[in-house]
From TrEMBL:
GO terms for molecular function: protein dimerization activity. Residues 4-66 form the HAT C-terminal dimerisation domain. This is HAT C-terminal dimerisation domain-containing protein. Pfam families: Dimer_Tnp_hAT.
Length: 69
């Protein structure tokens, strides 16, 4: 049995077809830096001159809420 979780779920696709699709979707690593670039962009838009007293805790909360919108 392979040690790689992705290979295990590819082998299990006949037994658990729906669950294996979900697992493969979330176990595949990102090949780009797009998610981190989006976060930096949203941080720049959120942290501006009008919000210069925003603490890091509140900034994290705002970015979290923007992500789930």
């Amino acid at each position: 049995m392979p040690d790689d979780a992705l290979l295990i779920w590819k082998d299990m696709c006949k037994v658990y077809p729906i669950l294996s699709k979900v697992a493969v979707k979330y176990l595949v690593p990102f090949a780009t830096s797009v998610p981190s670039e989006r976060l930096v962009s949203k941080t720049g838009l959120t942290l501006n001159k009008q919000r210069n007293r925003l603490t890091s805790k509140h900034l994290n909360q705002l970015l979290f809420f923007k992500r789930i919108e």
